Amino acid sequence: MNRKMVLIVGGYGAVGRQIAQILHDRHPDLDIALGGRSPEKAAPFESVRVQTVVVDNNADDPLLYAGDNISLIINSVNDLQDRLLLSAVRRKIPLIDLTRWTELFQQSVTKLENTELYAPVVLSSGWMAGTASLFAMLHSASLQNVAVNIHALYSLRDKAGPDSTAYMDRMAVPFHITEPEGSRLVFPMTDPVKVQFPNGYTTKCYRLDTPDHVTLLKASHVDSASFRISFDSKASIYMLVGLVKSGIWKMISGDRFRSLRRSLLYNPGDGSAHHVLIHLKGRDTNGRWVERNIAISDPLGQTHLTALGAAVQAEKLLRIPEDEPLAPGIYYPEDLPDVRMDSSAIINFFKQYGVLISH
Predict the structure, then answer these.
(1) Could you tell me where the beta strands, DSSP code E, fall in the chain?
(2) How far is residue 332 CA from its own chain's centroid?
């Protein structure tokens, strides 16, 4: 890899600092800039290859003071007005973005489709920076008419940054899912499915709106996709289901009650394992229906799994030869090409960092 500079916006945060550490340790020739509104803070780890720069996603031009030698941007904090996104597009810098819930994600896609692009834009807002969708794609590639069902067990004791709570503001908002019979409107925290996770914990999982519903369906062999979540506290999940079903959650929606909503479910701890179970059903080459289960557990938690997902995507973009650039356009984690990183290499990457994977 020729010497390059990666800018990680939100580089001081729970996810950003782990992305920085992973890329720093794996690539001795890579320089890293940590972007944020308070560059006077000490970097989360010391290195002559790490610097800090001013990047404020609320500014008109967030990249104004970031420098002009950036090879790749990874954004791990909210960009609600698409200011960083469009600032990167104008500067022709490849971007990986981890932060958009589905409505904002779709608005950003619409903007990008009406904007001339000069570099790849990877929208990685699916679960754990698209890691769940990536594994679903890796294990369904040989099938047709695939139904993807992703289930996540979220630990309330896990580390989490404040931006990770954005899903709480969407609990009263219905969303569309696509099934073999067609598209239909559903509500969050409905249609429970009983799931046993890799750690043996059994609980009901409920619908949640994530961009995985949208991006997985871009693949021609996927007919339907769904995402469900549960917490490792049954009291908390039943409380949330009751608040949503009764309409109380809708009553406390909006900015006025944001702190109240987050106080109910956002009390991050020192860390806890994160578990994902992916169920696939599709037709094999003989036309027979087959089912596959992929279990993913990260003992270091959801922020670590998110950072690994972002790092995999970053490595794909950093490997691209300068004389054979990736075509400008919108990409998703599960369809970002890399001829030198096949499915086994991707799986081994996660395993190298302690992620437990079985299927």
Answers:
(1) 4-9, 30-36, 50-54, 72-75, 95-97, 120-123, 144-154, 175-179, 182-186, 193-196, 202-207, 222-231, 274-283, 289-298, 329-331, 356-358
(2) 10
Handedness of CA 304, 308, 310, 314 (dihedral sign): positive
pLDDT tens by residue, 102-138:
888 999 999 999 999 999 999 999 999 999 999 999 9
Give the residue numbers spanning the domain of 325. Answer: 4-126+303-358
> Tell me, what CATH number does 219's domain have?
3.30.360.10
Question: What is the per-residue pLDDT across 215-253, written as a single tens digit (0 to 9) for each?
Answer: 999 999 999 999 999 998 888 888 888 888 888 877 877
Query: How many domains in the chain?
Result: 2
Phi-psi region of 119 (alpha: psi -120 to 50; beta: other; left: phi over 0): beta
Q: Say what the pTM is.
A: 0.92
Q: Can you give the three-state secondary structure of 132-154, one letter per residue? A: HHHHHHHHHCCCEEEEEEEEEEE
Pairing of strands 30-36, 274-283: unpaired
CATH number of the domain encompassing residue 24 = 3.40.50.720
